[in-house]
Specification:
This protein has 370 residues and is an alpha/beta fold. It has 13 helices and 10 strands. The protein folds into 2 domains: 39-83 and 190-353, Rossmann fold; 86-187, Rossmann fold, CATH 3.40.50. It has helices spanning 12-16, 61-67, 86-99, 112-124, 138-146, 157-169, 188-191, 195-204, 221-235, 254-260, 283-292, 301-312, 320-333, and strands spanning 57-59, 71-76, 104-108, 127-132, 150-153, 174-175, 212-216, 244-249, 296-298, 342-347. The chain starts with 11 loop residues before the first helix and ends in a 23-residue tail after the last strand.
Length: 370
């Protein structure tokens, strides 16, 4: 246990021993209850800043029946101000950066995190640097630039982290995201904000508590936050059992780690699910699964594309990296006890940000005059 401070490189002892691991904010006590009014009392920093959080839960009974589940719900994080769950993280990071006197917030991102941190930094009057890749989607790039962020492109993802590490260690930048190899999680103050998803689900599903939460996952920031939120609710005596938290991933990473044991390894795989791509994972991702009895579920890209369309036709147009949660939920529907499971898929981001390349342009139809 360490004093409350910024530990951008995780646990110092773990780092010296060659096993980088994230640190988390520890609370000596929790509020006696969770209500709409007291949600922010559970977090390291209060808000809201841009109106993030308190996102809706969408019930999909027809899909639940198709999958053989007792219930299927989507926690619609795409309704956050910049369209993704990252806003919960950015709100706390920017508040912390201001408190410690930082002038520039930096984020290594080619997508949601960059646009989100840029927005919150702009509101707070802080400079923002987004270290990205040359092929960054024009949609995300424009959002960052409109918020006044400075964009720096590097040749490889590892070079992004090297640059952020150099500037962080020199004291020039306050980092929002990981810059370690092997990685730890993102800024621990920011990850703490993801615990609010569990608190909101506790309020929103009281009549039919979730048994399983499916989270689109790369290095586990969101999954750890959700898992820790439910663990804290149990510690506070507000729930008896915690739901199993599962990682939906585009190719086997965490699933291999759970078998092989070394979360520092790299894993080959390419995917169009860019928001959850990457060859690495973290201790926190494995920890979230083990502490909740969950699992890691690799999902075929073609299946995710079909499920993205299915969700859109149910009214939820989610990013492909988000729709993967439904694909993973199908695996839970194949379990023997599926009929007793209430599954919540975390819809991390809306699909309007995706760069779509269409074939033929729409042709105008002839309309007869009256």
């Amino acid at each position: 246990m360490y004093h409350f401070d910024d530990f951008f490189e995780g646990c110092p002892v773990c780092l010296r021993e060659g096993w980088p691991a994230s640190l988390k904010v520890r609370y000596t006590e929790f509020p006696r209850c969770v209500t709409e009014e007291t949600l922010r009392d559970w977090l390291a920093y209060t808000g809201p800043v841009l109106g993030e959080g308190r996102t809706s839960v969408v019930d999909l009974p027809d899909l639940a029946h198709e999958l053989g589940l007792a219930g299927l719900l989507v926690k619609n994080e795409s309704s956050n101000p910049t369209g993704s769950h990252k806003d919960r993280m950015s709100a706390l990071i920017v508040q912390r950066a201001k408190e410690v006197g930082a002038s520039t917030v930096a984020v290594a991102s080619s997508g949601n995190a960059g646009a989100s941190v840029a927005a919150y930094a702009a509101l707070a009057g802080l400079q923002c640097v987004v270290v990205t890749m040359p092929e960054m989607s024009p949609n995300w790039r424009r959002a960052c630039e409109m918020h006044g962020a400075r964009l720096i492109a590097t040749s490889t993802p590892d070079e992004r982290w090297t640059l952020v590490a150099q500037k962080t260690r020199s004291g020039e930048w306050y980092p929002a995201t990981n810059f370690m190899i092997p990685p730890v999680g993102s800024n621990p103050m920011g990850i703490d904000g993801f615990r609010a998803i569990a608190l909101e689900l506790f309020l929103q599903t009281k009549e039919r508590p979730a048994t399983d939460i499916v989270v689109p996952t790369s290095r586990g920031d969101l999954m750890w936050g959700v898992a820790q939120g439910f663990i804290d609710l149990r510690e506070a005596g507000l729930i008896g059992e915690i739901p199993r938290v599962h990682a939906a991933e585009p190719f086997p990473r965490i699933s291999r780690i759970l078998m092989e044991g070394d979360y520092r390894n790299t894993h080959d795989g390419k995917t169009a699910m860019v928001s959850i791509g990457g060859s690495t994972s973290t201790y926190q991702a494995v920890d979230a699964i083990r502490r909740t009895g969950g699992s890691a579920i690799p999902v075929d890209e073609k299946r995710a594309l079909r499920d993205q369309s299915i969700l859109a036709r149910s009214g939820l147009y989610l990013e492909l990296s988000s729709a993967v949660a439904l694909s993973a939920a199908r695996s839970l529907g194949a379990e023997e006890d599926a009929s007793s499971r209430v599954v919540v898929c975390v819809g991390t981001s809306h699909g309007y940000k995706e760069l779509a390349i269409f074939g033929e342009p729409l042709q105008p139809e002839r309309v007869a005059a009256d």
